[in-house]
């Protein structure tokens, strides 16, 4: 066979041609690959106002965003905004796609003004008459008294500064919602405050903020204002009753987790840095902090106050307030059932009138201003149940031993008897006082009065009270007109003018103490129980068991045929002049009247039952000081028991 040597090159040439053709097909331009890219407004100084992103990607048809705050999106716009809920550093990722091809890029963004950054300053000079939102990317400077007649919303992290005459006042139709967060509080402060929002007044630190730099915010119209995680600093420049920083007047408001520091509050008016003395029922004041104010807080008896507020600097417990207390305004005829539980500082009261239940928590301290009294009338009751470890205290405004130096005079004044009037439970039933302490009251002789009321008074202390009045039954605890059902047990009385007065509508056992447990020689001036025998309200059987002091009767006792008086062993019964006991049936109506240690004697007899007439040894008992014991049966005779002393008969 003859072979052709030209066939191989031809085949190779053909193959080469096919190969080249194939390469030409592969080298056609493919679809361009996407390139992910974006920018955002503000750079590292971006605040938590809406962040503006610009998508500068190329060759992409779809996008996948991850904003770093657990939110994602597929925004395809060239420019859009995304709002972060709180400050922080976020990694923002963008994935650009074109078919199966993709590209990813990411950048770190700081939300919240970073160190060295300056926010835009917005001067607020006009009244607010349309819905308005203040954002944290700006510092708002209020230069005068601005009226808010529509909705004003202040976002978390916003700084609001006030010039010397600056203030906000809600008007008809106005409302305020200023709800910050723990990480992003809202600041209301002085234009001189460079620590918040920077050097707004551009004086390079030449001036420093101080109390009374600006006026106030007054919530006196609109719906229930909501304020949370706000800080009120350096306010209260007005005088008198307007020297507050935040006022709640004729409306209800909710104020939680706010700080009031370096404010006025009225050293004379005591209006409070937070002035809620005219707030309405439904107001809530919880978890707030007050320090370095003249007067921290004023409230009214229309809403409750729990134990969640703090009255010291959390960073420095020694930094408190000048007048360390809560002042209370009265609303006669309007009070509602409420609870007071604050224990860090005292409640400071002028005269108050109560028409509904007041419940006091253990450890509460009530300080009364001169001439003040708490009057509980129809429909009200006082529930003051405490413990031996946390008693409830009613005392003088000058008493620094309980609740601290509330009157801000160091030791310039000292508490004394008659500093305030009384707590009066007037014609009501159901009140209960347990482990309460009453000090320095009784301007008219009485510090706790129960006129025409039934109440339980147990484990209480009455010390350093009273006035030496002509009304003999005006004792520290005056139960001389109390109703049946009253209980007086396990109480302590010492250093009072008169300790206790009772009536014949309830029993009295031997559980009360009439001396200072820490000093047995410290007793009461009139060391006895003033007894008012009221035949109109006496219960059929009355029992007296007290043995430490005498029952000093300021009226005669008349026992109807169906009534009895039971005396415990060692009981001493004393009588004022021209007084007697009349048993309408027989001497047996005096149950145990001739029992062991039972004594009937003169009011002047200090040898039995102590100095009941409070005059030391100024006079001595003698025959005829009182009438005696008469039983009105057919014969009508005077008893001649050996335990009857200094009687006429």
From TrEMBL:
Signal peptide interval: 1-21
This protein's record includes keyword Signal: yes
Organism domain of life: Bacteria
Ranges of residues in domain PKD: 32-118
Entry keyword set: Signal
InterPro entries on file: Ig-like_fold, Pectin_lyase_fold/virulence, PKD/Chitinase_dom, PKD_dom, PKD_dom_sf
Protein name (database record): PKD domain-containing protein
Organism: Hymenobacter crusticola
């Amino acid at each position: 066979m003859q072979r052709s040597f030209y066939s191989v090159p031809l085949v190779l040439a053909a193959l080469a041609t096919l190969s080249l053709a194939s390469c030409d097909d592969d080298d056609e331009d493919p679809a361009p690959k996407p390139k992910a890219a974006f920018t955002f407004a503000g750079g590292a100084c971006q605040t938590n106002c809406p962040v503006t992103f610009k998508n500068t990607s190329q060759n992409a048809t779809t996008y996948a965003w991850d904003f770093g705050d657990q939110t994602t999106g597929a925004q395809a716009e060239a420019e859009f905004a995304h709002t972060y809920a709180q400050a922080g550093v976020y990694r923002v990722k963008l994935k650009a796609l074109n078919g199966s091809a993709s590209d990813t890029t990411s950048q770190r963004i700081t939300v919240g003004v970073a160190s060295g950054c300056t926010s835009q300053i917005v001067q607020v000079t006009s009244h607010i008459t349309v819905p308005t939102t203040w954002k944290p990317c700006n510092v708002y400077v209020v230069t005068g008294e601005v009226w808010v007649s529509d909705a004003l919303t202040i976002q978390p992290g916003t700084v609001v500064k006030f010039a010397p005459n600056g203030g906000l006042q809600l008007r008809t139709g106005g409302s305020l919602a200023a709800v910050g967060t723990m990480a992003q509080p809202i600041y209301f402060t002085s234009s001189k405050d460079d620590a918040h929002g920077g050097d707004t007044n551009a004086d390079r630190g030449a001036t420093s903020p101080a109390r009374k730099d600006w006026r106030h915010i007054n919530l006196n119209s609109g719906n229930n204002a909501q304020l949370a995680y706000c800080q009120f600093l350096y306010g209260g420049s007005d005088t008198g009753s307007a020297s507050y920083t935040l006022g709640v007047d004729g409306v209800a408001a909710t104020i939680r987790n706010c700080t009031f520091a370096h404010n006025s509050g009225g050293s004379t008016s005591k209006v409070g840095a937070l002035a809620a003395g005219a707030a309405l029922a439904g107001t809530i004041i919880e978890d707030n902090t007050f320090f370095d104010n003249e007067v921290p807080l004023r409230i009214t008896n229309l809403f409750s106050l729990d134990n969640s507020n703090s009255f010291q600097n959390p960073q420095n417990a020694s930094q408190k307030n000048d007048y360390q207390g809560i002042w209370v305004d009265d609303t006669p005829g309007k009070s509602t059932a409420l609870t007071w539980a604050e224990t860090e500082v005292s409640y400071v009261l002028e005269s108050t009138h109560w028409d509904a239940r007041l419940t006091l928590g253990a450890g509460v301290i009530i300080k009364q201003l001169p001439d003040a009294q708490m009057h509980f009338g129809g429909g009200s009751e006082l529930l003051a149940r405490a413990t031996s470890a946390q008693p409830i205290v009613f005392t003088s405004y000058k008493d620094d031993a309980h609740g601290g130096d509330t009157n801000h005079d160091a030791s310039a004044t000292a508490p004394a008897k008659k500093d305030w009037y009384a707590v009066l439970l007037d014609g009501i039933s159901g009140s209960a006082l347990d482990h309460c302490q009453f000090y320095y009251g009784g301007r008219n002789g009485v510090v706790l009065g129960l006129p025409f009321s039934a109440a339980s008074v147990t484990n209480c202390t009455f010390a350093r009270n009273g006035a030496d009045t002509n009304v003999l039954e005006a004792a520290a605890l005056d139960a001389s007109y109390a109703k049946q059902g009253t209980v007086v047990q396990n109480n302590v009385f010492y250093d009072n003018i008169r300790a206790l007065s009772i009536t014949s509508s309830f029993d009295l056992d031997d559980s009360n103490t009439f001396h200072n447990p820490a000093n047995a020689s410290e007793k009461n001036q009139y060391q006895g129980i003033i007894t008012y025998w009221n035949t109109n309200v006496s219960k059929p059987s009355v029992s007296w068991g007290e043995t430490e002091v005498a029952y000093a009767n300021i009226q005669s006792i008349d026992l109807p045929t169906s009534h009895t008086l039971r005396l415990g062993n060692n009981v001493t019964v004393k009588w004022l002049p021209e007084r007697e006991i009349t048993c309408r049936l027989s001497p047996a109506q005096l149950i145990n009247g001739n029992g062991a240690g039972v004594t009937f004697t003169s009011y002047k007899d200090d040898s039995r039952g102590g100095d009941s007439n409070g005059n030391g040894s100024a006079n001595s008992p003698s025959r005829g000081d009182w009438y005696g014991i008469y039983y009105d049966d057919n014969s009508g005779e005077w008893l001649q028991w050996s335990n009857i002393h200094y009687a006429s008969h």
